[in-house]
# Entry
Amino acid sequence: MTRFDADYYRRHYEDPKTRVADQKTIARLGGFVCAYLRYLQVPVDTVLDLGCGVGLWKGVVERYFPEVSYHGVEISDAACERYGWEKGSVVDYVPMEPADFVICQGVLQYLEDAEAERAMANLVEVTEQVLFLEALTKSDWEENVSQELTDGAVHLRSGDWYRKRLHPAFIACGGGVFVKRDADIVLYELERA
# Structure
C-alpha cells in the first residue's frame, strides 16, 4: 500500500467524519486568496497546483479567473487516475513555463528535509508572480489543528524554517500569500507581513 492511495483520499477528503478539508473550506480560503490577487491586480492566466489532491482549488480558481488555465500535479497514482492530474512532485516538477499563480497546500510537511529544500527551490523556479503556500508546522500541530483528524505522520518544522527559504525570492503578504520579488506587483508597506 502506498501512502497516498485511495484510502488516504477517502479518509482525509471524502468521509465527512474524518476529512480535514472540503469544498466549503477551500471555497472560503481560495476565495480570500483569489480576491486578494484580484485586488493586487495580478493577471492570472496560468495556475499550477502542486499536490492538488482531489482538486478542491480548481473550481474556486476558475470562478475568480474564468479564462484561467489550471494544471493539477499530484504524486499519487490513485489521484492521477481518478481525477486526471499529471503525475509529478513539487520536488522536481518542471512546467513548460512558470505559472502566474502557484498553489502548494499541505504538501511540504510530507517531505524529508533534503526533499523539502529542493521543493522550496523549485517553487521559486515554477512561480512567475504569486505563490500560495500552506504547510503544517510544529506550532500548528501543537496549537491549531485537530490531532485526531490531521495526519501527524509528517515532518514538523518551524514557520521560520519555511520563511527563511522563501525570503530571498518572495515577499510575504500574510494569509499564505507570497509575491515574487521580481514580479511587477505593487505592494504597499503595510501589505507586507
